Amino acid sequence: MTELAEATSAVTFDSPQLQELIDHIADGAIERDERDELPYAAIAAVKAARLGALRLPVERGGGGATLTQLYEVFIELGAADSNVAHILRSHFGIVEDLLRSTRPEDGRWLERIAEGDLFGGASTEIDAPAGSTDYPYRTAITQTPSGLRLNGTKHYSTGNLYVDWLIVGATDVDGGKVQVIIPADRLGVLRPNDWDGFGQRFTGSGTTSFDNVEIHPEDYFSKETSRREKLPYPATFFHLQLNAMIAGVLRRVALDAVELVRARRRAFYHAPSDVPAEDPILQYSVGLLASQAFAAEALVLTTAAALEQAYAAHGTPEEQQLSLRAALLNAKAKVVIDELANRASSELFDVGGGSLTRRGAHLDRHWRNIRSIAAHNPKTLKAVAVGRYELNGTPLPNQGFF
Length: 402
Hints:
- It is a single chain.
- 46% of the residues lie in helices and 11% in strands.
- Helix 4 packs across helix 8 (280-312) and helix 8 runs antiparallel to helix 9.
- It is of the alpha+beta class.
- It has helices spanning 16-27, 29-35, 40-49, 67-87, 89-100, 107-114, 236-263, 280-312, 319-347, 364-374, 379-392, and strands at 119-122, 140-144, 147-154, 165-171, 177-183, 189-190, 208-215, 220-223.
- It starts with 15 loop residues before the first helix and ends in a 10-residue tail after the last helix.
């Protein structure tokens, strides 16, 4: 990949600099897949461009993007390299939390984000009930003769291989639940590359462990008794990111189909045209894929606009209903997008025949990545929840899946 100049301020939405960054990430995606290469260089470019500050107000050194614009960028990143989009997932969730904070002491973290730093989360523990926030963390801070120390292991800590800071959920010395923010490279923080998924292979979604990591008083971010206000459906933000990433991969599938047909020099046996691009059967396949990509993107952006309305209503009587609406739209979008994308990533092979199954074409990465992203929560659960709501008015579950 070509080198990008380091930015003096955060990239802004729809700027040439942002497009240059996305093109830069896309240019190396197939080579990384070929070489099993972790995208450290791509993430370095993200930091240099200060993409992580996209949502910060311009007056705070950010890009000033709206929430809907952020999801447009996630779609574009998903089309460029869905691994890179996924790596940034926790960071942008943390940014949203900080933007809603009214605590002056949180301003220092926004300053770090404005400078290009990336944040990751370390909360999930392997024996915790899925979606629950009530379980006691086994990862704990204890008092030792040498001071406070953090020990434990977190799982599914996506992106932590690449970030500068970690927000860690832990049990404090008094038994209460806390969050601490520590440098990702502090002594005793272990970030092995042990994620072995067949898709999204370079997201670093494995374990993060803490072996007698020093904890200082200034590392404390929040305590259970003074947590920031929570949104009615806090997980909508994160799961809409997943829908946006899949929509992005589907866009890439459609673009690949166009390029493959244009590049073909031989027609199928019994083809109605000797020129592949003039073959109505191939035109149908390309048109179908492009239409499916459009539908997926439209669903994501409609839901993003609804979520933006809910965020704007924070603290008002309308917030609960608007948040429910956004969560409901996101659930409906997932049911449709998963179905479209999994089918489309297989139908892509209809435009080129057996030659497209060569490993060197790397077209299987689309199905592998879509399948891995979609597996974060089943569309069957979402469809059932939507059906219950439509039939009986039953509110959506309010936990990790929603």
